[in-house]
Design goal:
Calcium-binding protein; secreted; mainly beta; 1 helix
Length: about 425
């Protein structure tokens, strides 16, 4: 007895656009289900697959050569004598597609197998994976969790619905990866690429090259990799890394633009001259090396300039500024909310503080805590040993004398714009 399955386009649910003279490899997933109990039958021989190509689905003839083959989904019977169908089968189709940009549809999947009994079997099909070829491909998923690999050249990969995996390829092409709905993984690898996660909690990796990454909705992870990248988190609580690659790869770090937009975001600039903008929400910004620009935006933000001469701007909310090494500039907001300014180690550079609100904001000088430091408003008031914190109201310069003698142990720590009326109460630990 012969039993046949005929799986139409509605169950496959995918249309692919294939560039001229390109080789496309695709898989259709066929599920064979036995109703009414255990029923063994031999492994199917290669079946027939009807392929229609052309702009309207009817012109042209079948591309030549084409390869059709079934694989997977089988296992031995206990006696080792025969095989029987077990779950899923994979259909692999490879061929040359001539004549410009065409529409390729797998419209009919027809499988014939032999059975000892006349039990009912049902078949369902969907596209599970696609691999492009040597040309510039446009590969589009639909419903379901798809794997799409652009392979060579500059490709457009669209995951659409489902939790999709999109891979741009290793050849350095200019790829566009669009995840669509679902929790997607996008990896462009080489080249100057554009990645957009769409709705869902997505993970996007730009790799080498000057990339643009957009998280859109959801809690996203964006990694620009080497090159001059632009990262935009969009809605949700996102984590954005401008340069997040192995130090053993010998890559060149880039000058990145990283935008958190809405949500409570974490932005990491890495090496290079970076711009980090947290946008609305309570954000964490970490710049690392070189001269960077950090903008917290609205919300209670924490900013680390790390090395270099950095510019940190807080915006509305209670913000924490830490330039670390270098001569950094801090811009707070006159909003009546307490901001906290962490100063460098003595001798590591003098920072600039703009819009300091005396009696509200605080300055943290960790080295003056717990040592009995004394606050004075003139260097001439320093008398004897110990640690002295000196604020010159005439110039707005805040300095420290670590031994009370000024001999090799006196350092400028911060210049306060506008020369506010600073007191010991404005400095933590005094």
């Amino acid at each position: 007895m012969s039993v046949s399955w005929n799986v139409g386009i509605s169950s496959l649910g995918l249309t692919e656009y294939v560039d001229s003279n390109d080789v496309l490899t695709r898989w259709a997933l066929l599920q064979l289900t036995v109703e009414g109990g255990y029923d063994p039958f031999p492994v199917p021989a290669p079946g027939s697959v009807q392929v229609i190509w052309g702009s309207n689905g009817v012109d042209g003839t079948e591309p030549d050569p084409m390869l059709y083959a079934f694989s997977g989904g089988t296992r031995l019977l206990p006696d080792g004598g025969r095989y029987y169908a077990d779950g899923f089968y994979t259909v692999r189709i490879t061929g040359e597609f001539p004549g410009g940009l065409q529409v390729l549809r797998l419209v009919d999947l027809f499988v014939t197998v032999s059975s000892d009994t006349g039990v009912e079997r049902t078949g369902t099909g969907r596209i599970d994976g696609m691999v492009g070829g040597s040309g510039g491909d446009t590969l589009m998923g639909a419903g379901g969790d798809d794997y799409i690999d652009g392979a060579e050249r500059s490709d457009l990969l669209v995951g659409s619905n489902g939790n999709d995996t999109l891979f741009g390829g290793l050849d350095g092409g200019l790829d566009t990866l669009l995840g669509g709905a679902g929790n997607d993984l996008l990896d462009a690898y080489d080249g100057h690429d554009h990645l957009s996660g769409g709705t869902g909690n997505d993970s996007a990796h730009g790799g080498a090259g000057n990339d643009g990454l957009l998280g859109q909705d959801g809690d996203d992870l964006l990694e620009g990799g080497s090159g001059d990248d632009r990262l935009v988190g969009g809605l949700g609580n996102d984590m954005l890394y401008g340069d997040h690659v192995s130090p053993f790869l010998g890559v060149t770090y880039g000058n990145d633009t990283i935008l958190g937009n809405e949500g409570n975001d974490a932005l990491y600039g890495g090496e290079g001259f970076d711009k980090l903008d947290g946008g609305a929400g309570d954000d964490y910004l970490w710049a690392d090396e070189d001269d960077d620009t950090l903008i917290g935006g609205d919300g209670n933000d924490t900013m680390h300039g790390r090395e270099g001469h950095d510019r940190l701007t807080g915006g509305a909310g209670s913000d924490a500024f830490n330039g670390e090494s270098g001569n950094d500039t801090f811009y707070s907001d006159l909003d009546g909310r307490q901001d906290l300014f962490y100063l460098n180690d003595p001798g590591a550079g003098a920072d600039h503080i703009a819009r300091f609100e005396a009696g509200i904001d605080k300055i943290d000088m960790w080295f003056a805590k717990g040592v009995g430091a004394t606050f004075v408003t003139s260097a001439s008031a320093v008398a004897g040993g110990g640690v002295w914190v000196i604020y010159d109201r005439a110039s707005g310069m805040l300095s420290v004398d670590m031994n009370g003698t000024g001999a090799g142990e006196s350092y400028d720590m911060a210049l306060l714009y506008g020369r506010p009326t600073l007191t010991a109460a404005d400095i933590m630990g005094l």
